[in-house]
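Record type: monomer structure entry
Structure origin: computed from sequence
Chain ID: A
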Amino acid sequence: MESTSSRATATQREQWMVEGQVFRIYELFGSIPRNAQTQLLELQRDNHIEYLTKGLRQLGPSFTVLDANRPWLCYWILHSIALLGDALDDELEDNVIDFLGCCQDVNGGYGGGPGQMPHLATTYAAINSLITLGGDRSLSSINRHNLHTFLLRMKDRNGGFRMHDAGEMDVRACYTAISVASVLNILDYELVKDVGNYILSCQTYEGGIAGEPGSEAHGGYTFCGLATMILIGEVGRLDLHRLVNWVVFRQGVECGLQGRTNKLVDACYSFWQGAVFALLQRVHEINDDKKNHTTSNLFEGEAIKEDSSHLVEYHEIGFNFLEGCAMEEPLFHSMALQQYILLCSQLQEGGFRDKPGKQRDYYHTCYALSGLSVAQYSSSKDFDSPPLHSALFGPYSNLVEPIHPIFNVVLDRYQEAHEFFSGLPH
């Protein structure tokens, strides 16, 4: 009789291989002396900062393939350093601000490098980088008027956004456009109109959200879609029950999170899926209690009408979202996720990787640390409340900075940016 292994698909064989690698790490951890376990449980903060700072100063020739993603490299590194509670020296900070200024297009938006055409993804990365740096010089360098014009140019008549002139249209474009417009206090009805309809058309039968209508539900797009619907005040239009049912099954036996059904675990989904859990914890609270603040009437499940749009303070939705208290229990196993991040994704010499057998990189370092923050604060009632020691896997010195889960910037940097841009006209 033919064995199960001989009839296995390529996907099954890959899954078994990853499970084997992960389980061997866990078995080895359980078999070593306690003092050795303590070292493996520690967040190697200094080594991570050294790896990140070195990359911000100089990258090798292999990174030429990412020449159109240079603001992303800035964001991944800067955000990781901020999560670790560190900061740049003044000279390096000024260099980053000057470089991102060279990426800003005269007609609005930011390109992947100096002289490159503006793109919504690199615009989001540049804005988040400048917010993470903080301070008047960084925040004042953003041309909000031209950026608003660029965002309107990317808007499609069906409600979605294109990533660049004549580019692809997807949920990622909607999120990056709405996110930067919200945090910069330039979000208005023109930008919001029919965005909710487009995202609704991307929610699949599984409950997650796809990149475009008719595609497969995906963790990254689910985060983008859910966060966007919150920022435009239309999250109640989504089928949240189906969304919950889909996302809770994305944490597997490896303890980490996967991006799609029947796909491999990947440390980056510690944030993309982990933040979905964080958002849903507070969305349910808003829907249940209908808190009496500016946005309380925006979660009823209806699109905002033009004749009432002047009553909506879009800029405050993201800020007021911080006021919502989380449900008592997170919707995922936060300790298990921290275990995967620290034992399977973290490299002792610095940096994080997708999974065992992969190389470290700045992308996975950024989103593994972001996911670690989500997991550590998942049982806190408020975003900025220090978690109990029992909420952390490993020593309390592992605690990283809290983030705003809608924007994925460190919380105090978001609050500084909100105050700065709130004082400027729409």
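Annotation 1: Residues 10-31 form the longest helix (22 residues).
Annotation 2: Strands lie at 352-353, 360-361, 403-404, 409-410.
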